[in-house]
Amino acid sequence: MRNSFNRAAMATGAVLAAAIVTLGAQALGDTNARQPATVSPATLPSSVQLPGTDPIPVMILSDIGSRNSKQGDTFAVVTTDDYVVDGKLVLPKGSPGYGLITDIQRSGTGKKNGQLSFTITKLVAPGGADVATQMTGSTSDAVIHYERNGSDTMQVLLWGVFAAAKRGDDLQIKAGETFHITANGGQLVPAVAAGTAPSALNTAQLSIAPAPQFSASVNSPGPVGLSASK
Questions:
Q1: Cβ neighbour number for residue 7 with a 10 Å cutoff
Q2: 77 φ, ψ to 5°?
Q3: C-alpha separations of 70 from 64, 156, 174 in Å
C-alpha cells in the first residue's frame, strides 16, 4: 500500500517537475522574444551634426588674383588638419574643397586698386559626401599680396608725365596660403574611422589648375599638396 502511494507521489512529482520546466522554458522564450536584437557597434550608423562655428583651416592650391582670374573661376583647397566634431573624425587632413571667385575688379588708372572676392563652397568627405561651407569675409584671413603693375621706375616716370597713366595695384592670393572657413551648421555628415584616407581631388571641377608645386601630388596617394614646398 505504502509502495503504491510512493509510486503515485513520485509520478505526480515528475509531472509537476516537467510542467515547471516547460513553463520555465516558455517564460524564458517570452523574455527572449521581448528583448531587442543586439547590433554590433560596428554596424551602427554614425553621423555628426556640424555646429557651424568651428574654424576649419584650408590651404589654397593655385594663385588667384584680380589681374589674371575672372568671375566664375573655380579652384581647389585642401584641409590642413583633421576636422573632428564631438570626438568623431569628419574630414581627414588633406580633404579637398572647391572655391568660386564671385567678383573681380581689375586695377585701373588713377591708382584704382583691383578687388577680389571669393568663397569656398564645399569640402568633400571620404565617400564623396559634400560638406557645404562658407566664409565670413571676401578673403577671410588669407594673406593678400599686392602686385605692382610694371616696374617701380616706370610707375614713377609715368606718374611724372601723366598722372592718370599710373595704375593701381592688383590683389593676389598665392598658392600655399592658408586661411579658415566654416561648415554650414546643422548638416548631418557621416563620421569616419581614424586613419581613413581623404577623398581624391576632382580636377574636372576646376577652371584654375593647381600650381606646379602641388600638381604632381594631385594624382598621388595621400593628402594633396601637403608635403609639397611652397
A1: 10
A2: -135, 165
A3: 9, 29, 15
